Fold:
Amino acid sequence: MHSWAWLLLLSIALLGGAAPARADGLQDQARQFAGASVPAAQGTRVQVEVGSLDPRLKLAPCEEIQPYVPPNARLWGRSRIGLRCAKGPTRWNVYLPITVKVFAPALVATRALPAGSVLEEADLAQAEVDLAEDPSAAVLRANAALGRALDRPLAAGASLRQSHLKPRQWFAAGETVQLVAHGPGFQVGGAGQALNAGVEGQPVRIRTESGRVLTAEAVGERRAMVNP
Structure:
């Protein structure tokens, strides 16, 4: 069979002899699906932006189109939505690029701040920011940032993220720390000696009063949490 004849047959199979599925209709479905799927917490505003299909792509008509979230995708920031034809002459599956923005009040820099700056009240202000524009969580309250040093520069007006802040050292090696372990329906505590510095977000080894060495997580001033 000549290549042109094969292409003609393929086009007939895809289009089913009718007008192709409308791209703007697919965008609307993706937008509605994403908007309904993103939990909007109190005080937040969700905005969904949907990209376009390749204009050269022709889709057969479909009676039932199902939008879905592809594996390993997340409706947060830049992502994608899957659309598949569940009922029609020809089954097809396409992906649309999508950007989910979630706006809420958070901290921004009032001026350009170099790395190493210790944050003061005058350096920060509240503004509406897109929580989803950066993988690192936005800092929402000033008491979580004041007195902390910046690990990297922060531009004026930019959203302050957890990744901007240098990890805090809650205690030094050799200090006595309070240990807390909790689980469903229980909480126990004790004391121990830190065998290395307790840096926020990093594991720390603690020797208990009985001599047992545990791995915990530094969570506060001379406090460590043991995960059951």
The radius of gyration is 27 Å. The longest helix spans residues 23-37. The chain has three domains: 3-101, 103-164, 169-226.
